[in-house]
Each structure stands twice: as C-alpha cells, then as structure tokens.
Design a protein that fits this description.
six-stranded mixed β-sheet, 2 domains, five-stranded mixed β-sheet, single chain, alpha/beta, Nucleotidyltransferase, domain 5
C-alpha cells in the first residue's frame, strides 16, 4: 500500500506491507519554515507540498525497494486539513492510481492517527477506547472489533493542541507549542497556579479548552500589568497539568463505561510526556492496557494513512477519480453516530 499525507505542513509518503510492516515512511516537515510566522501559513504550505511531493514519493519507493508496479493500492488523506495542502496529495494519488490502474482509497486523516497504534503494536486488541489529540482535534472514540468507530466525545471549541500553541505563543516559547510547553514544564511546579479543569465533572465525554486557554492568558496578562515577572515554567506546568487532568479523567471514564480493557492514545499531542505518564498510571491502577505510538508516528505521517487504507481496501472501500479535498471532514459528530469501516 502506498500512502500519501499532505493535510497540513508535512509532506509524507510511505510504503506499508499487509497493513503491518513499514517498508518506508518519508516525512518532510515545514516546521522551521513556519516558525517565523508563529503558525502554519496555508499558502506557503501548499506551495512547498507542490515542490516536495515528487521527491518524497521517489524516496519512499526507493527506501522500500519498490516500484510503482509493486503497489496494490494508493491511500491518501482527503480531510480534514488545509484545502490547498490536501489537494496536492490527492492530485498525486489520483495520478499514480490512474497511471498504474491501482485502486484509490480515501482516508480520514484523524482515523489515520488511530491506525498508527495498529502499526506500532502487534499485540493490540480490540475493542478499545481511543483518545485522539492534535492541533485541530480532540476526540474520544470507541473502536470496535471490526475496526468500526463510534464517536463518543469531541471538543466543543479549541482542540488540546491548539490550546498548547496559543499558550506557548503568549509565554514566548515559540511554535509548535506542544513540545516547548512539555519541555519547560519539567522545570515547573504544576500546582503553582490553580487553573480550571473545564467540563471534567460533566456527565459526558466532550471537551472544552477555550476557557482554560483564556484563564492562562489572563493570568499572564495580569502579572505583566502589575509589573511582575511571569514564572514561565510554573505557568506552563500548571496549564499542562489542568489539560492533562481533563483528558485523563474523561478517557478513563469512557473506558469504564464502555467496559473495554484497552485504551489507545493517538495524534500529535500523544507525544506529550505528562499525558502519557498520567494516563499510564490511571490505566495501570485499573488493569487497562494503554497503547500509544512512538513519536515519529504521533505526528502527521503517511505510514498511518497507508495502514488505515489497507483495512479500508480489505473491506471493499474504493474511491473514484472524483475524490476531492474535504477540509472540514468530521468523524460523525459527538452524537455517537456510528460509521462502518468503509466510510471513514
């Protein structure tokens, strides 16, 4: 399976065999390019995807020791994401599929993140509750034994990764914010500031981080208006602890309610060390197995798209050449709408 991922600012191509063995996974990141802007500039991202997509595809095939004639199908992320970026990957995938007479598989980018765990852990068992956290998404899903997914909770406003980025910007830590906050927090006191834990006690699995983000920013502004120095490490650690407390509590409650013995963590924020530690501790105390991918598979990459595409291909899913970018593609909302494996 050839996978292509260009939903944001990583240009990636991968070759995955039988949905489990990574033959190659090439990722060209634009992070350094966007740092001076404090975030991803869509037009800049799409232009660089155009420049990078063919060299990245060539390297993925070369690293895998494969040619286009060896490819059984082409899987591509078609949303959610930046429309210009998505279109570059989709155009490349369509061209290869048409030229090689290979099936084209459209993959939901968020579902791709979940399948990073399938690639990383051969002993993963389903059903499972999966917490997917990234710059644009914070979702809780129930993954069935048949690989179907049911959305049981999602963010009502800011995603966890978005909150990390905005708080990091106000603290002067740079972009991307998540890794910077994670690093600085290790030197801080997570109990120094009592920030709110939004919706932690509510009887649902939805999230809301806009209020937490605002509380942190207001605290920083108040200190500066008083002429006081901002204890960056303490504020970062306190913010991170509040966010992790909410994510952990809701994930554990979901696992207990759904009576599953497996929890998965996926998405860019899955690389956060505090989140891994807290969730691991809570899972261990309840006899729940926790799985999360290695850092290289937490960020956007094509191997996860190829893996998800393999299971869609196996279930009979096919896309035609009318496949288009869907920048606002959802998982079905927070109303427990169930989607079968062939409708990602």
């Amino acid at each position: 399976m050839l996978g292509i991922e260009t939903s944001c600012d990583e240009t990636s191509a991968a070759v995955v065999e039988d949905g489990s063995t990574i033959r190659s996974n090439v990722i060209s990141s634009q992070v350094l390019m966007h740092q001076k802007f404090g975030g991803v500039v869509p037009e800049v991202a799409s232009r660089h995807h155009v420049r990078l997509i063919l060299p990245v595809l060539d390297q993925a095939l070369n690293d895998a020791g494969a040619t286009l004639q060896d490819i059984s199908a082409v899987a591509v992320a078609y949303g959610p994401g930046l429309v210009g970026s998505l279109l570059v990957g989709i155009s490349a995938a369509k061209s290869i599929a048409m030229a090689c007479n290979a099936p084209l598989i459209g993959v939901n980018h968020v579902i791709g993140h979940i399948y990073a765990n399938v690639l990383a852990h051969k002993d993963l068992t389903l059903p499972a509750v999966c917490l997917t956290v990234s710059g644009g998404h914070t979702d809780l899903l129930l993954i069935g034994e048949d690989h179907s997914h049911t959305v049981i909770g999602s963010t009502r406003d800011d995603a966890a990764g978005e909150a990390f980025d905005k708080v990091a910007r106000v603290l002067g830590l740079g972009y991307p914010g998540g890794p910077h906050v994670d690093r600085v927090s290790r030197e801080g006191n997570p109990s120094s500031v009592k920030f709110p834990r939004p919706m932690i006690e509510e009887d649902n699995f939805d999230f809301s981080f806009s209020g937490l983000k605002t509380a942190v920013i207001n605290h920083i502004h108040t200190l500066r208006q008083r002429g006081e120095s901002v204890p960056v490490a303490d504020v970062a650690a306190s913010f991170q602890q509040a966010l992790v407390d909410v994510l952990t509590a809701k994930t554990i409650r979901a696992a207990e309610q759904e009576r599953v013995s497996t929890v998965m963590l996926s998405g860019g924020v899955a690389a956060n060390t505090k989140l891994r530690q807290e969730l691991q501790r809570e899972c261990d105390s309840r006899g729940i197995r926790l799985f999360y991918p290695p850092p290289v598979l937490c960020t956007d990459n094509a191997a996860m798209i190829a893996c998800a595409g393999y299971y869609l291909w196996r279930s009979g899913h096919r896309a035609d050449l009318s496949l288009n970018a869907v920048p606002g593609l959802t998982l079905g909302g927070a109303d427990r709408e169930k989607e079968s494996p062939d409708t990602p």
